[in-house]
Design a protein that fits this description.
The chain has 207 residues and is of the alpha/beta class. Helix content is 36%, strand content 17%.
Length: 207
């Protein structure tokens, strides 16, 4: 069965404007394509996502169409730039909306996010990548996603103003290795869940 991956790009940039986060995400997607995994990037800033803790906040809210894609995916990657050492506001908003959707159940009575795997991609000009990844990966785990090992691919530049990820022509061996770890470990675990989903004993939300 062919796997599906959804990547939420939490960049504050819109449309086709260059995104360092998307540049790093695209390296993950190159591996996904090689391994026959469907992958789609959704730039969150291009959607009208309402504030709130629910799966649908009503008129004008475009989160439900994003959620439908996540529900039909095997892998979810959240990508974010760093601002003042934190993940972006829109990445936070997406995580809040995911939390508000976690009471939806699958046909086994589990959270709809069971048997899906998660990861994080982070870019920035200063420190904060591990902090942002920690927040993202914990949040995903808390609502039902499974986090494989080494799925925090990141790049940060030196302190202060300086080159961004696209400016260095993507030449960083540490980052490239972690892109590889993220891609293959999410694929491996997603394939396992396709064959052997988590049993529903002890984890049905309504029992």
């Amino acid at each position: 069965m062919k796997l599906n991956a959804i990547i939420l790009n939490g960049s504050l940039k819109h449309g086709d404007e260059g995104s360092n986060t998307e540049a790093l995400v695209n390296e993950v997607i190159e591996i996904y394509k090689k391994e026959n995994v469907n992958a789609e990037i959704l730039r969150l800033s291009d959607y009208n996502i309402s504030y709130g803790i629910a799966d649908d906040m009503g008129k004008g809210d475009e989160w439900p169409q994003i959620l439908d894609k996540i529900i039909n995916a095997d892998i979810l990657i959240i990508g974010t730039p760093l601002w003042l050492g934190e993940k972006s506001s829109i990445a936070t908003l997406a995580i809040e909306r995911l939390y508000g959707s976690s009471s939806i159940t699958n046909d086994q009575g589990q959270s709809i996010f069971y048997n899906k795997v998660g990861g994080a991609v982070v870019t920035g000009n200063e420190d904060g990548a591990k902090h942002a990844a920690t927040s993202i990966l914990y949040s995903l785990s808390h609502i039902g996603f499974t986090i494989p090992p080494n799925v925090d691919a990141y790049w940060v530049g030196e302190a202060g103003p300086g080159p961004s990820y696209m400016d260095i022509n993507y030449e960083n061996e540490f980052t490239k290795k972690h892109v590889e770890l993220l891609a293959y470990n999410t694929i491996h675990l997603a394939r396992m869940f396709n064959k052997n989903p988590i049993p529903n004993e002890g984890n049905q939300l309504n029992n």
